[in-house]
Amino acid sequence: MLIYLFCSVVFSVASHITQNPPSAPALLSQNHSRRPYGKPIPMPERIERQGDRDTEDIVAEVEGAVAQIRGKKSIGSGFSVLPGIVVTNVHVIASEELDDIKVLFPSATGAKKGPFPVRLLYEDVERDLAFLEIPAKNHVPLQVVQDYPFRRDQRVIAIGSLGLDEHPVLENAVSEGVLSTQTEVENQAYYQLSISINPGDSGGPVLTSEGDVLGVMTLKGTHIEGVAFCIPHEALNQAIENVRQNDPAVMEQARNTHEFRMPLHRALERVPLLFQNGIHPEELQQRALESLEEFDAVAQRMPREADVFWGRGQARLALNDIQKALEDFETATQLAPEREDLAELCDKLHQELREQNAMTDKREAKPAFNQDRFRRMGAPGLDQKKEPPRLPAANTGSLDSTPSMWPSDS
To answer: Looking at the predicted structure, is the pLDDT value of residue 222 above 90?
Structure first.
């Protein structure tokens, strides 16, 4: 299983079924300096690299452009890719009001440090990339590789703001590892890295040994340490090109979609809380009832979204309503047939229901079962009003009571 890396309540890797939300006002910060619409954003001049470099030199060059993304509920990472524009993961900001999101640059100094308000410019939900505009345009953007020949075992460097339990956030922490392989997760291409990363790293840059951005950190394995995944540079470059077009219709659609989907993401974040250990059963039941109510409300807005029914099914599982949970999971499977995890979950629940029904049938049929068993053994049936045969007691002629020949019901 894989999990996202933003520092908050973690939710399942979500399917992303495209849905057109209703028109809604854009959410803009009141004091935000707007970039004029319509004019393409120029690309920064590229720097020619001269081979491998020391990690210390690379970090010193890029850390001023690595950002921390803060909301009321979550902390993630990001980095500058264009003047005044920062990229992060969609899942880092998905449950946040846009006015609550702030960007700061931990390694910058003075006014360049922030925090800065944001305006959402673009989201690629399928690729989990979000682009935020900030009023400061003096952070030197990081350079993304253009044509990269994949090489196993190449040294890579990740930078991000780690959030570990209740400890203070570790700002711009550096990790080193190697590039392992290319793979797919939910039909999307990723680079798999052998590197140690933690919650809060989501959205941070993965750098080559020359100091260019190879990808955007986004996932890690849940049960295997040192297994992480980043969004490759091809997807990042394509998204940057879309942002550079500066299309106002695209930007407004991104903000409207964010607002429309936010209640779903907030509901999904509560799902892991339904299965916490060490919580009183009554409290867990109350959480499940509240979660069920949330998903019922979201289902009215988004009746074609698989994650709505996946989440509501989880709430019903927490309430031990397996039949209703199965109905929700089957609906989710119909809406997202490519989701193998949903199909597997339905199969497991069908099996559990069959086992429960078999146990119920066995309990209800127990007298008849014993009756048939007695007849096969040659003993009188329960419907025959005969006393069970008794054996004479030893050394006497009396018919003293002896152990019954009836088989035990236990």
So the answer is: no
